[in-house]
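Memo to structure team: turn this sequence into structure tokens by end of day. - J.P.
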Amino acid sequence: MSIKAENIKYIYSEGTPFKTVALDDINMEIKEGDFLGIIGHTGSGKSTLIQLLNGLEKPTEGTINVDGTTVGEDKKKLSKIRQTVGLVFQYPEYQLFEETVAKDVAFGPLNLKLSQDEIDKRVKESLELVGFNYKKIKDVSPFDLSGGQKRRVAIAGVLAMKPSYLVLDEPTAGLDPAGRNELFAQIKLLHERANVTVILISHSMEDIAKLVNRVIVLYKGKIHMQGTPKEIYAQAEELEKIGLGVPQVAQITNELRKRGFDIKQDIITVEEAKEEILREVRRRHV
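Reply from structure team:
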């Protein structure tokens, strides 16, 4: 099971003086169990790409295939594809509107005309998946929650549709550090425990480094680089050429290496840096 994009091109305002090629010759595969990070500047094509994955937009050229079904080929199958690929846009809490958390999360399953027992089961499971105590949260107004909690409720509403793939577009935008850490911890658990394939769009090189197992770098509508986080961030000069850079911890360890510290080159997290620096300090004091 996978999502495959083959020879994708997407053009805005084709046939007008405002024609813009947003995506050009995109070929990629998102496999079941992946935790994929997509990074790139504003205008690189990230948001356009994820809208193609569940049929919100149709490619100008090429095909998107979700678990064996070509997106857009059969309009009757489009609703099933949108359930399979759950899409969470920036600031999804703005879409919360019901009087209680449980009713908000139940909105999607209710439209699927499921039994009340199945709806209740999905609401409970989804809220627990994002770290809530169901009994404590279900009757609370979503408007009485913190920003991070609202964001998690909105994600639970998508999870209640039972997607195989969860696409998150800058999920921590606007949150304070505590809210960011809380949300990312839940997303990580979601991937590990619920067997949900996650596609994460983020501007934060640190967040991508900590969470994902594979990275795609978009630049001017093309896939510029792809690989593991260590493979991508080892190419610091190339990333800097396109204005992205590397996580701050990688910058620090690079500087330490220039000053003679014997530290590995592929460090991308604070935990790895701490271990390497302590090892080097101990070596120097032997």
